[in-house]
Amino acid sequence: MKRTVVVGLSGGVDSAVAALLLKRQGWRVVGVFMKNWEDDDDDEHCSSREDLVDAMSVADRIGIDIEAVNFAHEYKERVFARFLAEYRAGGTPNPDVFCNSEIKFKSFLDHALRMGADKIATGHYAGVREFDGGFQLLKAEDGTKDQTYFLHRLNQDQLSKTLFPLAGLYKREVRAIAEAEGLHVALKKDSTGICFIGERPFKEFLMRYLPPKKGEIRSLDDGRVLGEHDGLAFHTLGQRKGLLIGGVKGGKTKHGSANDHEAWFVAEKDIERNILYVVQGREHRALFSERLVAGELSWVSGKTPATHRVFSAKTRYRQADAPCEVESVEGDRIDVRFASPQWAVTPGQSVVVYEGRVCLGGGIIRGRPEVADDR
Question: What pTM value is reported for the model?
Answer without folding.
Answer: 0.91
